[in-house]
């Protein structure tokens, strides 16, 4: 099967800063591909290359098997690569309907007039399809919760025929219940055959919905792993670069020699912390 999008040896430099180096990545239809990594790992830079914000300094981007160079986010969107940015996803003072269409409103008649009723009906129906029932499509988006806003952005991308849906940290500002709702939409987009790139710091969220995982660390890739080939704890360790945890292990060993009970307690606490959702 041809990947929807593929990166071949992609690097990105900002002056002396190496944001990405020799990244290979493939995303297939009907797949949730999680992009993991600590702060500054290069996750946002990578998806900005896919969404037409940046051009790669080296390497190649392929869309449905063909090399592409996007000169703007609009160009990537027209090809079917929709990106939902955490904060810029919505205009808070505008209505749900207006946000749903954002420049692609349905127009009717020879004068191509905006059809507000039709727009409101489509927005309401499309949101219902992914399980969001809105009281009033004219309601400002700013009155929705963070999770609902993310959901409107996802519904919009699906309605306008996105093939690739990129979500940059969609759950990071959300509580547990709201995150679960957004994760459900991620799974629904996948069920419709989209390739979803899901960026997160949260291994628990990634593990809940991901099929494949690419881990970045300081601009380099540790590789791509299928869920059945890896473990949550391994991903966690790669994300943190492993070093912190190794240092911790050495310290624990030293403590264990002097104070076995204390060491065991500390170990349990760390294990619990690593398990904690969020
Ligand atoms: N426009 C830019 N100019 C210079 N350096 C940049 C630019 N964009 C990103 N960088 C650098 O590239 C590196 C990767 O940044 P990026 O935003 O891709 O990380 P990230 O993985 O998304 O981090 P976070 O989890 O904090 O969002 C960082 O060192 C950052 O300072
Ligand atoms: Mg980022």
From TrEMBL:
One of the entry's Gene Ontology molecular-function terms is: ATP hydrolysis activity
Keyword terms of this UniProt record: ATP-binding, Hydrolase, Nucleotide-binding
The answer on whether this UniProt entry bears the keyword Hydrolase reads yes
Give every ABC transporter domain span: 5-243
- E.C. number(s) listed in UniProt: 3.6.3.17
**Matches recorded under Gene3D superfamilies:** P-loop containing nucleotide triphosphate hydrolases
* The UniProt record lists the keyword Hydrolase: yes
Q: What class of enzyme is it?
A: hydrolase
A Pfam family this chain is assigned to: ABC_tran
Annotated coiled-coil segments of the chain: none
Q: What is this protein called?
A: Arabinose import ATP-binding protein AraG
């Amino acid at each position: 099967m041809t990947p929807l999008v593929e990166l071949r040896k992609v690097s990105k430099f900002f002056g002396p800063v190496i944001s990405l180096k020799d990244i290979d990545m493939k995303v297939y239809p009907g797949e949730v591909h999680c992009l993991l990594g600590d702060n500054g790992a290069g996750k946002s830079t990578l998806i900005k290359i896919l969404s037409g914000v940046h051009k790669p300094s080296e390497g190649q981007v392929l869309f449905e098997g063909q090399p592409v160079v996007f000169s703007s986010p609009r160009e990537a969107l027209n090809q079917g690569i929709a990106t939902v940015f955490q904060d810029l996803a919505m205009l808070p003072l505008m209505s749900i309907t207006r946000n749903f269409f954002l420049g692609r409103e349905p127009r009717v008649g020879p004068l191509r007039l905006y059809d507000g009723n039709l727009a409101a009906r489509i927005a309401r129906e499309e949101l219902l399809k992914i399980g969001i029932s809105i009281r009033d499509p004219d309601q400002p988006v700013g009155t929705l919760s963070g999770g609902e806003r993310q959901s409107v952005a996802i519904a919009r991308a699906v309605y306008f025929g996105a093939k690739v849906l990129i979500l940059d940290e969609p759950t990071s500002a959300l509580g547990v219940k709201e995150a679960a709702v957004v994760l459900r939409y991620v799974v629904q987009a996948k069920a419709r055959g989209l390739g979803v790139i899901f960026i997160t710091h949260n291994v628990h969220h990634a593990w809940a919905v991901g099929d494949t995982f690419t881990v970045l660390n300081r601009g380099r890739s540790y590789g791509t792993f299928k869920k059945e080939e890896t473990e949550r704890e391994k991903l966690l360790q790669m994300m943190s670069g492993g070093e912190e945890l190794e240092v911790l292990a050495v310290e624990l060993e030293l403590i264990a020699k002097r104070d076995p009970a204390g060491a065991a307690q500390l170990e349990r606490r760390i294990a619990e912390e690593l398990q904690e959702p969020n």
